[in-house]
Amino acid sequence: MSTTARTLLAVVVVCIVAALALIASSANTEQTGSIPVWQSSRQCKDCHASEYREWLGSHHQIAYTNPAVRELSDDFRNKECQACHLPRPVFVTGVTERTLPRLTRPDEGVDCLACHLSDSGDILARHTRPDAPCRPRASDDLISVRLCETCHNQHGTTDQWRDSGYPERAITCNECHMQRRDGAGRGHVFPGAHDLEMLRSAAQFTVVQEGDRVRLRLNNTGAGHNFPTEERHRAVDIEYRFLRGQETPPAFIPAYRFRQPYRDEAGENTQLPATHSHDVRLSIPAGASALEARLLYRLTPYESDGDSAVLFDRRLELR
Amino acid sequence: MKIIRTTTSGVLLGLALVGVACDGDSADVLPELEPPVLEPVARSLTLRLEGTPSGIDDDRLAQLQDLMETAFVPGVDANLASRARDALLAEPDAHWALERGLRHEQPVVRSNAAYQLGQLEVQAALVPLVRRLKYEKVASCKVWVIDALARLGNHSGLRELASLMVRGPRSLQADDLVQAGEISIGILDRAHHPIGRNPSYSELQSTLGELDRTWRRRGFVDAIAPTGDLTRLRIDRLLLDLAQFQLRSVDDARFVLQRLGVAAVPALRTALHAQNNYLRNHALEVIRDIGPAAADAADDVLALLGDRISAPYAVQALGAMQCARAAPRLTSFLRGGDRELQMAAAGALGPIGDASTIPALRRLLRDTRATLDARVQAAFSLALLEHGGEGYTFLTGMRNSGRYHEPTLRELLDRLPAK
Lengths: 319, 419
What we know:
The complex is a heterodimer of chains A (319) and B (419).
Chain A: H1 3-26, E1 31-32, E2 35-36, H2 49-55, H3 67-72, H4 80-85, H5 90-93, H6 112-116, E3 124-125, E4 137-138, H7 145-152, H8 157-162, H9 173-177, H10 196-200, E5 204-210, E6 213-219, E7 235-243, E8 253-258, E9 277-283, E10 290-298, E11 309-317
Parallel strand pairs in A: 3-4
Antiparallel strand pairs in A: 1-2, 5-6, 6-9, 7-8, 7-10, 10-11
Chain B: H1 2-22, H2 41-50, H3 58-72, H4 78-90, H5 94-101, H6 107-120, H7 126-135, H8 139-151, H9 158-164, H10 174-190, H11 201-218, H12 229-242, H13 247-260, H14 265-271, H15 277-290, H16 298-303, H17 311-320, H18 327-333, H19 339-352, H20 358-366, H21 372-385, H22 389-401, H23 406-415
């Protein structure tokens, strides 16, 4: 072989080795071999467009960027809040263990990987699908209360569920918060305290006259946990006012608040457990012709009446 | 044979060229990271604490509390109160009642309890006093907690003392302001920090600020006091609290441990070897928050770079500790792979202050294929190392464009020295 040929061969080998190495390094960790390294929810959106769209803008996705959350957590100066609002994958840090905070992708909050990435780096789903690009592996834990518990028992919600009678009826978190879609699969919006329809399905509010008194009753008929539950910021208020003929209606008067106090606050937890009811009885004042009562849901106890959600609005003509 | 030699040398040359193209930072080959050896630290702590008495008899405590209330609750006859106070302070176990007094419903009792704990220099009161620092909302009480802590060799409250003297909604009433000024002068005197004879409040704030920075750098005052048995026991309890599920106990433990400075470091080092993820990683984060004063823990933290779960927090801690030994390894993380590690390393190298890492940081900053998270952190480190420059321009540009998480950018910009 001539010197030129040998040099040419060496150059060719150099180029091949260099090309292979550069291909490996330039993938920037997204792809190693045929199985991607899962690092972001954005990797999911092409194949799971509807789930991605549902998640995008959900309160899971904005868990870290939501201005209300930032205000309540003192802009996450309380770093403990970060573990659930920007979590690492739950299966990596341990199901039912407290999760640990992620450092990257603040805009993704509770991302797809938080629930779907396994400890060994593959994707977990309801069914094993070796033919799918992400090759999901079936996991029972994925649809279990234990998975949600990692974050949602921080304020006692899954403990409340365990005492609610719902487990015996096999009603888990997913039955209400991950509703079945018409087609295949379940929704990824996770409706909760920000969903008026969901809130209204949680309870019944009735107003009846009992002689010279009225009874205002809130019954937790639809939530498998306390109402309100989760954060101590949530509050449900019963308010009322008596009307007298043609007089201008007075302002609403607070009658009862359902809420768990902040840890530094005095007072008892007055959240309404599942299947329980609470009555407020009021004496009817002389001359009153009607009663108006309403149930307000406040995302924070400081939220004004105008900003709060009116779940029920009742009017009772008095005899 | 000649073909083989030529081809082999070509391959080696090729690999070398590729190596330079991919890295370009250093020819040093770092040893492979090994997983750390972890132990059942939480279990050992639980067993040890279960077998250790940690309080006094309830009846005895009730007696002491009666004395304390008689001494400090307003409305009691002055002579009786004075005798009760003398009797209480003569008791060697008075601190148990005084510690309870820190949580009394009446602010005047809380202030007196804090004052007396400081005067008695009961080192065991360090933990309850720091915890009170977190929860005390009445400014006139808080100044006495800070004073007591300073007398116990803990300056972690000085920043708050300085801020209490700023006019604003949380500032002190006129009388309390004078008191805070006198407390400040006393603290500065004892710390041998020069201050004029009639200092203004802004001079006091400024000098307290200097003392606060010294505390944050060193984590102790004058000399490291030996930690007593009760304090060690209380610190061990705090470690166990780090492993709890509910936020409040974790948050309390982190708050106190961080503010104990160097005194907490030996216990935290033990926790770094815990099998319990939560305990280990919270200990890492507390060490990060203590910063350079936790330098003794460097070897334990370096060992956690081989732990898949802890490594990103270990990187952050090494940065905050300004651990120069970690720079080569952290620079290697900039190349990519694990994005959490890459981002953590990019943000840690600036505080470490090793200028030789500038080229690698600059390369990451300019790499448009890298994540914005990593590039933002690289910009922060560059801005620290170059006192502004390209990194600072990138951060401010990001902030103006609204393309990245604004609170994170604000926090990073706040951490840069004022221009």
